[in-house]
Structures are given as C-alpha cells and as structure tokens.
Amino acid sequence: MGKSSSGYSHYESPDRFKGGPLPVAFARELAAALAPEGIPAGDVFRLTGLPIPVAEQTVADLVNVYDVQASAGNGVVVHDEQAVAQLAFPPGYLARLTSANPRDLKIISVKGDSMLPTLADDDVVMLDISKRDLSYDGLFVIRDGGDALLVKRIGRASQRGFVTIISDNRNVYPSVEKSLQDIEVVGRVIWRGGKV
Known about the structure:
The chain is an alpha+beta fold.
C-alpha cells in the first residue's frame, strides 16, 4: 500500500482511530492490496460509510492466463509457464464458482480432440491448483511422465494405488490405468470457456 506500518496501524488502533469510517483514499489503497486475496472492493468501501462508488462496484475478479497448453490428445511438452494476460469475471462470480483463493486459479488452453465433446481444441480451462486429490473423480490437468501436460477425466482403477485416465472421445482414445506414483497432478478443472 506504500504506507509505513505505523501509518497503517493508525487505522486498526481503537485508541487513535476509534473505529470511525475509513477515508476514501485509504479504502481505495486497501481494496487494491486485498484484491489478490479475493476480497471484493465493494466490501472494503462499505467501511467508508459512504455509498460505494460505481467504479468500485464493478471491479472484476481477475484470473491469470498462462501461455500453456494441456493436451486433449497425446501430450504437449511445456517449456514456459508465464502469465501472459488476465481474464476478467463479473464481481462475485468466482466466489459462487469456488471457495478457492484466487491465487490458486490458473487459466490455460486445451489442444486436441480426446476430450470431445466436453472440451474442444482451443477451449480454455480454469484450474484450481489447490485441488490435487485424485481420490475424487473429475477433470484434472496432470503431468504424465516428464513435461507433457494432459487434461483428462480421472476415475477409479481396478487396483489399489492406480487411477484410470479417461478420454471422453473413447472411440479414438482408449482409457488407461496408471500408477499414482507416475502422475503429477497440476490441478482440477473447475470451469471451461470456448468458441460457439
């Protein structure tokens, strides 16, 4: 926020601040600092005791977009994982979608046809990288030996310590069982977007 700790603590000190309304300028700085934690700016501006400015009512939730492709096919090798943009969502949308910390959400693209009709080539998916437990069925992005990223449906396997890696386009891509030790989970797919 660009403030010293004593300058900030003034607003949390009952003796000095007396719990009065926050100054608008301070609320704006505080809202910007708390946005990466998923706290809506409108919640902070309520502490001013004034009507929430329109600009603060419409602050979008932002999720980083990475220049990474997960294969819905036989695997894409990833060499560079850098955020290249942010995708904006309506205020409060992410909170209705997930309870995850916004820092744990990543958007990447999908290449290939193995997950048709669920995911198509050039769709984008949002991952929650805090969800890596494969004991629950669902769509996950995994590394299957090395740098290759795959987006696949994960299901139960016939033997303990294994999972079934399932492609929704089953006529072309058969399911396979893999040991949990051979799989690195990147995150669970919680949202998709694509062309119509």
